[in-house]
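[Target chain]
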Amino acid sequence: MKSDPETLLKSHGELVQSDTLKVKSHVQRSQEDWILHTLMIEGYDVPFRFKRQGKYRTLRGARVNLTYYPAQEIVAGIPVEIMKVVRVKRT
């Protein structure tokens, strides 16, 4: 089932849709039964994270459309801002 960004944005007020963002780096690592993907985007100092069952081909250098919401994660007792991605699409 394909997700429509407009439907997601109407349903969830905190979601943000950004188009044609350039990926600076893409890291994939195992976390239990999932693969944790971390994207760094040009012009942003915040990591964009999402989990999937399998690996993707690298997104480094690609343009992507992202639907995400801001969140915080505690790392070594310090709150760190991250963006939780709910939809990623290569353009």
